[in-house]
Amino acid sequence: MIGQRENVSGAHFAFTDRWGGVSAAPYEELNLGGAVGDDAAAVTTNRELAAKSLGLDPGRVVWMNQVHGADVAVVDGPWGSTADIPSVDAIVTTGRGLALAVLTADCVPVLLADPVAGVAAAAHAGRPGMVAGVVPAAVKAMIELGADPARIVARTGPTVCGSCYEVPEAMRADVAAVEPTAYAETSWGTSSVDVSAGVHSQLERLGVHDREQSPVCTLESRDHFSYRRDRATGRLAGYVWLD
What b/e string do you get for 201-232 counting C-beta neighbours within 10 Å, with b at 16 or more? Predict the structure, then answer.
């Protein structure tokens, strides 16, 4: 259920795999995405199971309506209703014990925290969001709330790797014009994009040096959801919160 979990000085980071939930095929088992066609009751149950496995109150987990952009919302508590959830790709908080969640199925889930300042953020960095600058926008919002990039801990979760994320040559060129380190080649010799490499380069330039990247490629791993591999599939989640 929880494929990776870490505690760094009271900042908690966790990433799910696809197992341990109640969803039926093609979303089996632990689909946490509410907009992929899965049964809503199953998604609710899965979110409760995942939260409780992390010792979290499911009602204290904040989700986003992700749209592959670069907008950021600062939150101090759960949304009042689903109608209140904004269309953003990053959320930032100073609330202790408030978990921020990001959904992915190939995109890069980015979790950030400055435990000293008590600021955390979660960002959804797909190819469009990485190019648009969602991660720099999230770090900027953190800094405005008192975070120091030198203290920020960054963890990125399972994502499609540069050796598998095939794109047209023109698209690779467009991405590389913005973020050269994202320029990549598939294992079979065609043009590709390494979104995670681009994200980590952005973080490095921002002064965020405590960074770790998951070794899991979602397209290659049957333990993880991959939209590029399966199309109709579930969503993984990354969670970050502060004690």
Answer: bbbeebebeebebbebbbbbbeebbbbebeee
Nearest CA to 81 out of 99, 105, 63 is that of: 63
Q: Measured between alpha carbons, how far apart are the two ends of the chain, in Å?
A: 22
Query: Is this model's pTM higher than 0.70 or not?
Result: yes
Q: Can you tell me which residue has the tokens 């023109």?
A: 170
CATH number for domain 2-242, candidates 3.60.140.10, 3.40.1210.10, 2.60.40.10, 1.20.950.20: 3.60.140.10
What would the pLDDT profile of 116-125 be if each residue is shown by its tens digit? 999 999 999 9
**Tokens 């066609």 belong to residue:** 37
19-57 pLDDT, tens digit each: 999 999 999 999 999 999 999 999 999 999 999 999 999
